[in-house]
Amino acid sequence: MFITDSKPILVIGVGGCGCSTLQALKKKHDFAEIRFLAINTDLRSLRGSVADDTIQIGQSLTNNLGAGANPDVGRLAAIESEAEISKAIEQASIIFMTAGMGGGTGTGAISEVARIAQTHNIPVIALVTKPFSFEGMKKARFAEEGINALQQYCNALVVLPNDRLSKVLGGKVRLIDAFKISNQLLLDTLSGLSFMLSVTGLINIDISDFKTVIHTQGFASVGMAKAKNASDIETAINRLLDNPLVENIDISSANGAIINIVSQHELALDTYHLIGNIIQQRISAEANLIVGLTIDPTIKNAIEVFLLTTGIAFNPKPVLQICG
């Protein structure tokens, strides 16, 4: 039984990059409890989409030709199609959104979609990418402006600067493989969230717990730590907390965290304490920390830990960072 009062988790891809990410996720994993919505100005990109629903925004404004790399056009397109977007998202319990920032539709429209979700009191988590530095100052400025606008309407925001892909993975890695790495973060997040809210465990986390933790707006850190052996879990969690692909944020200021532990076998008490203590030591002592635990012999690793830290303060005066 899915514990969301029959309201689905909704994943929205906005713009060309967001819709491409949606395609990759949907083809790789069949999330029975999650619906996918593709939103774009370009009609061609929506043809053949594997999303459950698609919305072409701004048809009158763009004449089906896209936003022309202009975020203002993307924003106005979303406003033009606000009624359709509102109807498509109003029944969601939680919304995940993804887009590539710096272009037209994704950059301009994603904050408007988040604003519409806010009118329905639906929690929004956004995962966006920043352009490579070689794409120029203009795209970098558009990306920063789009991220700043998005901050007003989403509960949790994860930023992945594309430049970090080459720094972390090396310049010789294939571009398609690099993007698979960033897509994996969203895939792990959706997998962990879906499992956490749909499976009855020894210690359950429900939708109310989730909404409580992401109540305060701010940057977020999210992902999955996987360990083949219990002895490796500390290294895996620290690697996740120090994720080099994510924008620089100080998780010590996080005011909330959800930890969902899934173990192949009964978990030793000292391991349970270790996991909680590692995370507690890295965030504020005043943070609202919620921990869930499930035993699942079918998982591929000895232990998997889904972690979401939230409420990390937005910069009051965002600074343009070309290289992230």
Describe, in plain words, how this protein is organized in 3D.
The structure is a single chain. By secondary structure, the chain is α/β, with parallel strands linked by helices. The protein has helices at 15-28, 43-46, 59-62, 71-80, 82-89, 105-119, 137-151, 163-169, 175-198, 207-213, 233-241, 269-282, and strands spanning 9-14, 34-40, 53-56, 94-100, 124-130, 156-161, 218-227, 256-263, 288-295, 303-312. It has a 10-stranded mixed β-sheet, with helices on both faces. Strand 4 (94-100), helix 6 (105-119) and strand 5 form a beta-alpha-beta unit. Helix 1 crosses helix 6 (105-119), helix 5 (82-89) crosses helix 6 and helix 11 (233-241) packs parallel to helix 12. The longest helix is centred in the middle third of the chain and has 24 residues, at 175-198.
